[in-house]
Amino acid sequence: MVFGGVVPYIPQYRDIRRTQNAEGFSTYVCLVLLVANILRILFWFGRHFEAPLLWQSVVMILTMLLMLRLCTQVRVANELNMKRRSFAATDSKDEEVKVTSRRSFLA
Protein backbone atom coordinates (compact mmCIF):
# COMPACT_ATOMS: atom_id res chain seq x y z
CA MET A 1 0.00 0.00 0.00
CA VAL A 2 2.86 2.38 0.74
CA PHE A 3 4.57 1.91 -2.63
CA GLY A 4 1.42 1.47 -4.74
CA GLY A 5 1.32 5.11 -5.84
CA VAL A 6 4.97 5.11 -6.83
CA VAL A 7 5.00 2.03 -9.05
CA PRO A 8 3.61 3.75 -12.21
CA TYR A 9 6.40 6.34 -12.09
CA ILE A 10 9.23 3.80 -12.21
CA PRO A 11 8.88 3.05 -15.96
CA GLN A 12 8.43 6.75 -16.71
CA TYR A 13 11.60 7.61 -14.78
CA ARG A 14 13.57 4.93 -16.60
CA ASP A 15 12.20 5.99 -19.99
CA ILE A 16 12.96 9.68 -19.45
CA ARG A 17 16.44 8.84 -18.22
CA ARG A 18 17.13 6.48 -21.14
CA THR A 19 15.81 8.76 -23.91
CA GLN A 20 16.78 12.09 -22.31
CA ASN A 21 13.39 13.42 -23.38
CA ALA A 22 10.82 14.67 -20.86
CA GLU A 23 8.32 16.20 -23.26
CA GLY A 24 5.50 13.77 -22.50
CA PHE A 25 5.71 14.24 -18.75
CA SER A 26 3.65 16.98 -17.12
CA THR A 27 5.25 18.79 -14.21
CA TYR A 28 1.81 20.11 -13.25
CA VAL A 29 0.83 16.58 -12.21
CA CYS A 30 3.84 16.56 -9.89
CA LEU A 31 2.76 19.90 -8.47
CA VAL A 32 -0.77 18.68 -7.76
CA LEU A 33 0.47 15.46 -6.16
CA LEU A 34 3.01 17.34 -4.05
CA VAL A 35 0.34 19.72 -2.75
CA ALA A 36 -2.11 16.88 -2.06
CA ASN A 37 0.45 14.81 -0.16
CA ILE A 38 1.73 17.79 1.82
CA LEU A 39 -1.84 18.60 2.81
CA ARG A 40 -2.37 14.97 3.83
CA ILE A 41 0.69 15.14 6.09
CA LEU A 42 -0.47 18.44 7.59
CA PHE A 43 -3.88 16.90 8.20
CA TRP A 44 -2.18 14.05 10.06
CA PHE A 45 -0.87 16.52 12.66
CA GLY A 46 -4.44 17.58 13.45
CA ARG A 47 -6.06 14.18 13.33
CA HIS A 48 -3.98 11.01 13.23
CA PHE A 49 -4.86 8.37 10.66
CA GLU A 50 -3.24 5.09 9.69
CA ALA A 51 0.55 5.08 9.49
CA PRO A 52 0.74 3.43 6.01
CA LEU A 53 -1.13 6.40 4.51
CA LEU A 54 1.31 8.77 6.15
CA TRP A 55 4.28 6.81 4.81
CA GLN A 56 2.64 6.66 1.39
CA SER A 57 2.56 10.46 1.34
CA VAL A 58 6.20 10.69 2.35
CA VAL A 59 7.26 8.19 -0.32
CA MET A 60 5.13 9.98 -2.95
CA ILE A 61 6.65 13.36 -2.10
CA LEU A 62 10.15 11.91 -2.47
CA THR A 63 9.17 10.31 -5.78
CA MET A 64 7.71 13.56 -7.15
CA LEU A 65 10.84 15.46 -6.14
CA LEU A 66 12.99 12.88 -7.94
CA MET A 67 10.80 13.11 -11.05
CA LEU A 68 10.95 16.91 -11.03
CA ARG A 69 14.72 16.84 -10.60
CA LEU A 70 15.13 14.46 -13.53
CA CYS A 71 12.76 16.44 -15.77
CA THR A 72 14.48 19.75 -15.05
CA GLN A 73 17.92 18.24 -15.67
CA VAL A 74 16.81 16.75 -18.98
CA ARG A 75 15.02 19.90 -20.14
CA VAL A 76 17.92 22.16 -19.20
CA ALA A 77 20.39 19.89 -21.00
CA ASN A 78 18.17 19.83 -24.11
CA GLU A 79 17.80 23.63 -24.09
CA LEU A 80 21.56 24.08 -23.74
CA ASN A 81 22.12 21.76 -26.69
CA MET A 82 19.63 23.74 -28.79
CA LYS A 83 21.34 27.03 -27.85
CA ARG A 84 24.73 25.58 -28.73
CA ARG A 85 23.41 24.43 -32.08
CA SER A 86 21.87 27.80 -32.88
CA PHE A 87 25.05 29.57 -31.74
CA ALA A 88 27.14 27.30 -33.95
CA ALA A 89 24.78 27.94 -36.85
CA THR A 90 25.10 31.72 -36.48
CA ASP A 91 28.88 31.43 -36.32
CA SER A 92 29.01 29.67 -39.69
CA LYS A 93 26.71 32.28 -41.25
CA ASP A 94 28.94 35.09 -40.01
CA GLU A 95 31.91 33.56 -41.79
CA GLU A 96 30.03 33.59 -45.07
CA VAL A 97 29.52 37.37 -44.98
CA LYS A 98 32.11 38.97 -47.22
CA VAL A 99 33.55 42.35 -46.34
CA THR A 100 33.34 44.83 -49.19
CA SER A 101 36.03 47.39 -49.67
CA ARG A 102 35.61 50.91 -48.32
CA ARG A 103 35.67 52.52 -51.78
CA SER A 104 32.85 50.41 -53.17
CA PHE A 105 30.80 51.22 -50.10
CA LEU A 106 31.30 54.96 -50.52
CA ALA A 107 30.54 54.82 -54.22
TrEMBL record:
Membrane topology of this protein: Multi-pass membrane protein
GO BP term, example: phospholipid translocation
Keywords annotated in UniProt: Membrane, Repeat, Transmembrane, Transmembrane helix
Entries under InterPro entries matching the protein: PQ-loop_rpt, SLC66/Scramblase_ANY1
Coiled-coil segments: none
Pfam hit, one: PQ-loop
Places the protein is found: Membrane
Transmembrane segments: 25-47, 53-72
GO CC terms in record: cytosol; endosome; membrane; trans-Golgi network
The protein's name: Solute carrier family 66 member 2
Organism of this sequence: Carlito syrichta (Philippine tarsier)
